[in-house]
Amino acid sequence: MENKKEKTAAELLKEQLCYSPENGGKQLSPDVIAAADAYCEDYKDFLDRAKTEREAVDAAIEMVQKAGFVPFDAAAPLKAGDKVYLNNRGKALLLAVIGTRPITDGVTIAAAHVDAPRLDLKPNPLYEDAELAYFDTHYYGGIKKYQWTAVPMALHGVIVRADGTSVSVNIGEDDNDPVFCVTDLLPHLGTEQMKRPANEIVRGEDLNLLIGSRPFRKDEESESVKLNILNILHEKYGITETDFLSAELEAVPAYRAKDVGFDRSMIGAYAHDDRVCAYPALTAMLACGTPDHTVVTILADKEEIGSDGNTGMQSAFLRYFIDDLAAAFGAKGHQVLSKSICLSADVNAAFDPIYPDVMARNNASRLNYGVCITKYTGSRGKYGTSDASAEFMGKVRRILDTNDVLWQAGELGKVDAGGGGTVAMYIANLDVDTVDMGVPVLSMHAPFEIVSKIDVYMAHKAFLATMKR
Ligand code: MN
Ligand code: MN
Question: What is the pLDDT at residue 4?
Answer without folding.
Answer: 66
